[in-house]
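Re-run requested by the PI after the first attempt was lost when the workstation crashed. Everything re-entered from the original request form. Ligand of interest: iron/sulfur cluster.
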Amino acid sequence: MSHAPAIPIVPVIEAPSTAEILARAPLETPAEHAALVAKIKRLLKQQDAVIVAHYYVHEDIQRLAEETGGYVSDSLDMARFGHEHRARTLVVAGVRFMGETAKILNPEKRVLMAARDAECSLDLACPAEQFIPFCDAYPERTVVVYSNTSAAVKARADWVVTSSIAVKLVKYLKDRGEKILWAPDRHLGNYIQQATGADMLIWPGACVVHEAFKGIALGALKARHPGAAVLVHPESPASVIALADVVGSTTQLIQAARDLPNKEFIVATDTGIFYKMRQAAPGKLFMEAPTAGRGATCESCAHCPWMAMNNLTALAQALETGANEIQVDEAVRVKALRATQRMLDFADGIDARAAGQGRPVSGFAKGERRQLGD
Ligand code: 13P
Ligand code: SF4
């Protein structure tokens, strides 16, 4: 008789304080800021490099990525952009799993992280040494992992997904009669399970930022702003998701802010997203969803501490010194590529079907991609 391990006890994640990280960031005068931007632009050109940034990093980096032919997006489209752009160096402004995904897909490219120590609590909560034996104990289950995982975890997976396609993929697998082993985000896992009715065994990790959103306080804020639409990233707890008008990936939330008729929004995701939301929906009002604690007592204050490590000085140093280069063991990379490439192919299939029906699904239409790097 086989004795399957119980759901694992995940490591306790000691996240750094966002406030402390931001306080340590160098203060620049306007002249220093301009000099830094000019230096980065010069280095990008010299090194045939392009910035691939996540919406959660500082708006200075998002702006610079846009000005220099780079890209700002959610984790799925960051992967797609890096894969299809012709630059020889990708400078990833985000967290480590995003850099590793870029390397898995592009072994011939140099991948630099703007911030060396930028981790993710989901990735840290799912060490490969614990995850692999857990999967081995359930050989009948299809292993689906969130992109917020290490290359070694992706190497053990059948599929990689991001929040923008997770429900669609699990529904597709369920319709094929497959049972799922899902890791590492328990809130996203529960949300997908509810949305699809799939048989899912769920790893108990969590995002330190989204887990801090509070349902009761959100309900009170919503009651004070009855005209506001509530936009929620599915890494949030069920009590927060229950109050959402729209649940989606970062790109999908920005699209909702643009497309919904509401003038006010309450947003349960990292506040870095407000830069793009305001661009996409000028004149609309965006409010932070309430988190645990206030001022010095809130842990992340709705801003990821690791995303906060990305700043212009760090980015310039990475380009100048070539430090923070992402390396992935080749045997691991080849295994991780299988599940990661499946994610891209599945997302392309969704886009192709949506284009046939005249509506974009992911944030990245086929026609746009063809122009990248031209
Ligand atoms: P997205 O794929 O929606 O950008 O989410 C990535 C992430 O880390 C959210 O916390
Ligand atoms: Fe990870 Fe959460 Fe930070 Fe996203 S916001 S990178 S899930 S810790």
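Saved to the shared folder this time. The longest strand covers residues 49-54.
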